Amino acid sequence: MKYEELWSALDAEMPRARALRGLLHRNPRPSGNETETRDLVIEHLPHGLPRTTVAEAGAVVRCGGPGPAIGIRGELDALPILEETGVDWASENPGVMHACGHDVHLAALTAVVHAVASTEAPMPLLAVLQPREETYPSGAEDIVASGILRREECAAMLGAHVQPTLGRDVVSCTPEGVNAAADEFHIEVSGRPGHAAYPHTTRDPLYAGTQIVGALQSVVGRVVDPMRSAVVGVSSFHAGEAANVVPERATISGTLRALDEETRALIRAQVREIAVATSAAHGCTAKVTITAGEPVLYNDPTLAEATAAILAEQGFDVDETLRSLGADDFSFFAEKIPSLMLFVGTETTEGLHSSTFLPNDDDVYRVARAMMSGYLALADAVA
To answer: 77, 328, 330, 361: which is deepest, by most CB within 10 A?
Structure first.
């Protein structure tokens, strides 16, 4: 087996990685407050590696000499969830929990770095410790904007994320778009308030708003090409306080999701057009604000093909079909650098962001092997 020494070194690191995972799980820190998590991870990396603080609570740690390198992302933040797993190493920070597997990803990444540092590896490695994956402002976007990856000559980026919808020993390595672009929209409909007994003297923004919500449901079904994927989702509607008053305004908010930029632009335009025209038809006005979120997460096809071959050699079942209209800010890396996001099946079937989500120790090993497979494939592809 090629790089047998590297794989053996990875195996030897697993007891230490599993122990670190327990520490991370017990001590989660929320988005924007990940400094302690970053420092704990760095303490468990090989000593003396050069590192650069970035995006406030993040860091980029270099393993290997100068020249082009492969970056591997590890997310630092936890979620505002009260843990209900019942394990004796559950969160000791009430109301904060690693419910998305970031503790697993970080522990696996440390094992890969130790293996690379202790053997003759094909290319330097950058451990990209990213804050704020679960919230805005995006930690990945800030890391890209800082220029650190360009200065460190990052030739390609790799991410790996646990995914309980996949079976154990299954890794998704899907080329092209795998996660959606996700934007938020906010619509404020303004009318003429008045007494509910005299509706003819008012211009009712609440009623206009209900018509907007209904019309938005037609965007995906009647405007978007049925061979493309999109979501226009209304998640919030607020209007009025009193039963006998027609309100002055109504507010509507939600998300827009698409797997390609053309569809993304189309549904943005449709939301604006529907809100403004429908409001006008009812004597009201509409102000539409669309806040850009993550771009489409695009997996480089060459990197996906190369990684799939090594994953298969390692005994994984490779899936090349998984796509999701969820979003991940790893897409900001992929927007600038050839990149690959892997999704790694787990033994648990509890859902991500659940208070009972708890991958086991074998899942740490699976993620580490998937990361190593990707690292070797990317290093060979960009050499």
So the answer is: 330
261 shares a domain with 216: yes
For residue 93, CA distances in Å to 27, 76, 87, 354 come to 6, 15, 14, 16
Per-residue pLDDT tens digits for 84-126: 999 999 999 999 999 999 999 999 999 999 999 999 999 999 9
Q: Which among 146, 133, 103, 145 has a CA at the least distance from the CA of 329?
A: 133
Closest C-alpha among 303, 348, 304, 350 to residue 323: 304
264 shares a domain with 199: yes
Containing domain of residue 16, as a range? 4-178+297-382
Q: Are residues 19 and 154 in the same domain?
A: yes
By C-alpha distance, which of 278, 182, 165, 274 is closest to 233?
Answer: 182
Structural domains of the chain, count: 2
**Number of C-beta neighbours around residue 239 at 10 A:** 20
Among positive and negative, which fits the CA dihedral 57, 63, 67, 68? Answer: negative
Among candidate residues 72, 70, 306, 311, the one with its CA nearest the CA of residue 172: 311
- Is the same domain home to 35 and 140? yes
**Domain boundary residue, one of 275, 291, 307:** 291
Looking at the fold, whether 171 and 208 belong to one and the same domain comes out as no
User: Considering only CA atoms, which of 299, 297, 300, 318 is closest in space to residue 308?
Assistant: 318
> Between 361-382 and 4-26, two packed helices, what is the crossing angle to 10 degrees?
130
Average pLDDT over every residue of 25-50:
98
Final residue in a domain of this structure, among 253, 274, 291? 291
Say yes or no: 17 and 156 in one domain: yes
Q: Do 170 and 229 share a domain, yes or no?
A: no
Region for 281 from its dihedrals, namely left if φ exceeds 0, alpha if ψ lies in -120 to 50, beta otherwise? alpha
Q: Please, what is the angle between helix 35-43 and helix 102-117, to 10°?
A: 30
Predicted confidence (pLDDT) per residue in 202-223, tens digit: 999 999 999 999 999 999 999 9
CB 27 within 8 A of CB 93: yes
